[in-house]
């Protein structure tokens, strides 16, 4: 089990409560009960002297048998037994260990009570003076095992009370710890949502009327989230505005370029074509940026319609296969189950096309790109996998390739390298359709990258 704050708080509270209850009980018994340790001792000594005197009297008046008789009720009732010595001789005829004889010898020379513990048995000895000043030593033998037995024989109502206090303390500590940690849990879930991209995540409204350090923390968190939200939104807006503003001069540049083509002679045609290509690339880049900002802000004016995912992928595979032949490669369907998704066909097409085109670009010459669609009816999920036979992507880059403009170092140098926006757009489109994308390296069959798109579907 994880060592959570909740468990720590719970255990500490509980320990404190149990300690306090125990301490209070001891104090109450000692002080309100009216007897302190010394008083108990005095009473015990007095009782020992009285019993001792009785035992001596019985022995002196009625002899050994009466003494044995006197000792019997003690044995029946409790773990205690009594012994009476004259010198070091036990008068009821019991044999005793050597150490007890020593204790008796010592007790005969002092005025107070002396004790000896042997394992679980304790002997308490006291000198008693009989008729004609005859000295005796009275010994009580107590067995601690018996006290545990006595404990188990405690009245039922005391046991019930102790168990009730125990249960109450558990419930009380649980409620207290739960209320302390509930704000932390709310804060944690809000942080989690923020980390997952939900910039509208706030904590303070969920805390109710709190006014303590935790509500201060929640306020700080909300301010931080507000600030991040503002920054990210303004940055996205700036990007969208710039892209939008660049479109018009670029369109005018293209028109001017066409006019130049018509009016300029052969020598400049090569340079003009180059400028035209760059204009075209710039236009594509701006288009991708606009797409990205649109999908990020989840704005799409189109309504979802049922899309036959299998046919759409088949068409994309056919087109890609046609292109692939120039490099001696093939793009082929290795598994295809019919399934339909609810979505926007153009968006889905561009999302999947980017993944297939990437695979085609990175697969080694003469190898195949394998595409498969499988449906998982119980979960209503379509799984589209695109696998190439290229170098794959290092583990550290597997998540990063979905970030805008991120390209693995060596693919930046390729002449036909893209802008690094394709997978970012793919991920946003698939997210908009309620699905997810991930990439991982193939472990068998010469490696390569597998990009897997999971999307909710209806089986046809
Ligand atoms: N199949 C693959 N094999 C190896 N690396 C890949 C693969 N697919 C993507 N990558 C890496 O991920 C990076 C990002 O891919 P992404 O599709 O986002 O951008 P791009 O293809 O470079 O450009 P764009 O798609 O915008 O034209 C690529 O530049 C490449 O480094
Ligand atoms: Mg790409």
Bound molecules: adenosine-5'-triphosphate, magnesium ion
Total of helices: 13
- Order of strands across the biggest sheet? 2-1-5-4-3
CATH H-level homologous superfamily name of the largest domain: Histidine kinase-like ATPase, C-terminal domain
- Which series of helices and strands comes N to C? HHHEEHEEEHHHHHEHEEHEEHHEEE
- CATH fold name of the largest domain, please? Heat Shock Protein 90
Quaternary state reads single chain
Q: Quote the average pLDDT.
A: 84
What portion of residues is helical? Answer: 55-70%
| SS strand fraction | 15-25%
How many strands appear in the DSSP assignment?
Answer: 13
**Class of secondary structure makeup:** alpha+beta
Characterize the overall form.
rod-shaped
Number of domains: 3
Shape-level CATH architecture of the largest domain: 2-Layer Sandwich
Catalogue the unreliable spans: none
Spell out the blueprint of helices and strands.
Elements: H1 5-32, H2 37-62, H3 64-77, E1 81-86, E2 89-90, H4 98-107, E3 114-118, E4 121-129, E5 135-143, H5 144-152, H6 156-195, H7 204-207, H8 213-263, H9 266-296, E6 305-308, H10 309-324, E7 330-336, E8 339-343, H11 345-362, E9 368-376, E10 381-387, H12 409-412, H13 422-432, E11 436-441, E12 449-456, E13 458-459
Parallel strand pairs: 7-9
Antiparallel strand pairs: 1-2, 1-5, 3-4, 4-5, 6-8, 8-13, 9-10, 10-12, 11-12
Helix pairs in contact: 1-6, 2-3, 6-8, 8-9, 9-13, 10-11, 11-13
This protein binds adenosine-5'-triphosphate and magnesium ion.
Describe the structure.
The protein is of the alpha+beta class. The chain folds into three domains: about 35-155, Beta-Lactamase, CATH 3.30.450; about 200-300, Helix Hairpins; about 305-460, Histidine kinase-like ATPase, C-terminal domain (Heat Shock Protein 90, 2-Layer Sandwich). Helix content is about 55%, strand content about 15%. It has 13 helices and 13 strands. The strands form three sheets. It has a five-stranded antiparallel beta sheet, sandwiched between helices. A five-stranded mixed beta sheet has the order 7-9-10-12-11. α8 (about 215-265) runs antiparallel to α9. The longest helix is centred in the middle third of the chain and has 51 residues, at about 215-265. The chain starts with a helix and ends with a strand. The model has no long low-confidence stretch (mean pLDDT about 85). It binds adenosine-5'-triphosphate (ATP) and magnesium ion. Magnesium ion (MG) binds near residues 358, 418 and 422. It is an enzyme of class 2 (transferase). It is found in: Cell membrane. One of its GO terms (cellular component) is plasma membrane.
């Amino acid at each position: 089990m994880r060592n959570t704050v909740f468990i720590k708080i719970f255990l500490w509270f509980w320990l404190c409560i149990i300690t306090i209850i125990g301490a209070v009980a001891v104090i109450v018994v000692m002080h309100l009960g009216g007897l302190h340790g010394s008083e108990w001792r005095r009473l015990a000594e007095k009782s020992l002297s009285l019993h001792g005197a009785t035992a001596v009297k019985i022995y002196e008046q009625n002899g050994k048998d009466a003494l044995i008789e006197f000792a019997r009720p003690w044995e029946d009732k409790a773990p205690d037994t009594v012994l009476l010595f004259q010198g070091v001789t036990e008068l009821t005829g019991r044999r005793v260990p050597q150490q007890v004889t020593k204790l008796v010898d010592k007790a005969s020379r002092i005025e107070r009570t002396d004790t000896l513990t042997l394992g679980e048995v304790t002997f308490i000895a006291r000198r008693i003076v009989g008729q004609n000043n005859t000295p005796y030593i009275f010994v009580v033998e107590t067995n601690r095992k018996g006290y545990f037995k006595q404990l188990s024989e405690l009245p039922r109502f005391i046991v019930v009370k102790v168990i009730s206090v125990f249960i109450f303390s558990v419930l009380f500590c649980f409620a207290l710890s739960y209320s302390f940690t509930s704000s932390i849990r709310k804060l944690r879930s809000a942080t989690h949502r923020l980390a997952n991209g939900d910039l509208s995540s706030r904590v303070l409204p969920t805390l109710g009327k709190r006014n303590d350090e935790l509500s201060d923390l929640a306020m700080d968190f909300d301010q931080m989230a507000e600030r991040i939200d503002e920054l990210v939104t303004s940055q996205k807006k700036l990007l969208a505005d710039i892209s939008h503003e660049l479109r018009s001069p670029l369109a005018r540049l293209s028109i001017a370029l066409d006019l130049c083509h018509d009016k300029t002679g052969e020598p400049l045609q090569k340079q003009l074509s180059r400028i035209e290509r760059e204009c075209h690339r710039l236009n594509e880049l701006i288009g991708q940026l606009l797409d990205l900002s649109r999908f990020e802000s989840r704005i799409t004016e189109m309504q979802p319609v049922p899309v036959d995912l299998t046919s759409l992928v088949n068409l994309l595979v056919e087109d890609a296969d046609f292109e692939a032949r120039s490099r001696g490669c093939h793009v082929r369907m290795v598994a295809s189950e019919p399934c339909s998704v609810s979505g926007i066909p153009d968006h889905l097409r561009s999302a999947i096309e980017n993944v297939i085109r990437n695979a085609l670009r990175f697969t080694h010459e003469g190898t195949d790109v394998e595409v498969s669609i499988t449906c998982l009816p119980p979960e209503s999920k379509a799984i589209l996998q695109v696998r190439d036979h290229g170098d794959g992507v290092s583990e550290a880059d597997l998540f990063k390739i979905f970030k805008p403009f991120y390209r693995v170092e060596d693919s930046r140098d390729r002449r036909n390298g893209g802008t690094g926006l394709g997978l970012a757009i793919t991920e946003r489109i698939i997210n908009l359709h309620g699905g997810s994308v991930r990439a991982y390296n193939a472990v068998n069959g010469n490696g390569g990258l597998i990009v897997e798109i999971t999307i909710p579907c209806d089986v046809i």
